[in-house]
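Progress note, sequence design subtask.
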């Protein structure tokens, strides 16, 4: 299985976790997913009243220098860690 296929599979598997990941883990996943699928941040930072949007944008911006492949690999690793922590097969 190629990297892209494994990434897409993990993007689906993470939705099956019995309990939603913590906010910190969700931001890590979001940033890596966006970097892997879109590339570097291509939007302006949300306004100060959009706390959720700012947190997501910051998570994406924080890994801006990573290649799409690196972001995919890190996303896969994080999903596997979350699945193992939940007692699910990775």
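Output:
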């Amino acid at each position: 299985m190629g990297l892209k296929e494994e990434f897409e599979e993990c993007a689906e598997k993470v939705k099956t976790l019995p309990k939603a990941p913590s906010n910190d883990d969700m931001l890590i996943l979001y940033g890596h997913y966006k970097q892997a699928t879109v590339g570097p941040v291509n939007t302006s930072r949300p306004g100060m009243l959009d706390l959720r949007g700012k947190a997501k944008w910051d998570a994406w911006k924080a890994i801006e220098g990573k290649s799409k492949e690196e972001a995919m690999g890190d996303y896969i690793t994080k999903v596997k860690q979350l699945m193992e922590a939940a007692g699910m097969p990775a």
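DSSP finds four helices and no strands in the chain. Work on this subtask will continue into the next period as scheduled.
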